[in-house]
Amino acid sequence: MEEQTGYLTVEVNTENGSSPLEGAEVLISVKVNNIDTVLYRFLTDESGQIPQTALSAPDRNNSLSSDSSGPDFSAYTVTVSLKGFYTLVSPDVPVFSGILSRQPMTLVPVTASCRIGADGNSPGCQPFTGGSPGNSGKGVYNG
Predict the structure, then answer these.
(1) CATH 2.60.40.1120 fits 4-142, yes or no
(2) What does DSSP assign to residue 33?
């Protein structure tokens, strides 16, 4: 069975999807020999989105047949970062052949009490570990 094309778009917002975040860096990567390889880098537009992106996906028949031995989808990692927010990593985002997948990413702002000092230390800062609706990944501080 041959590889086909699926599509992915990413929507970056603040908590509860109330405000789109412009200028967030979005990386789309895939594991190659257990090493993350970045395929695309985008900055979100004024509506917090990146362009629809074509990605390799397994043959559509794999996901339509229960007796198929091949994978149903390709898994990609989406990483979103923006100064003043925790960086969010969402692994294993599924992309199916012929389908547009939408990945919402909700960034959480770093509180005023959590600032990185000139020495690079961040006393009192707690790492963000995800948990917002629509996020399936882990977050780290992006100062």
Answers:
(1) yes
(2) T
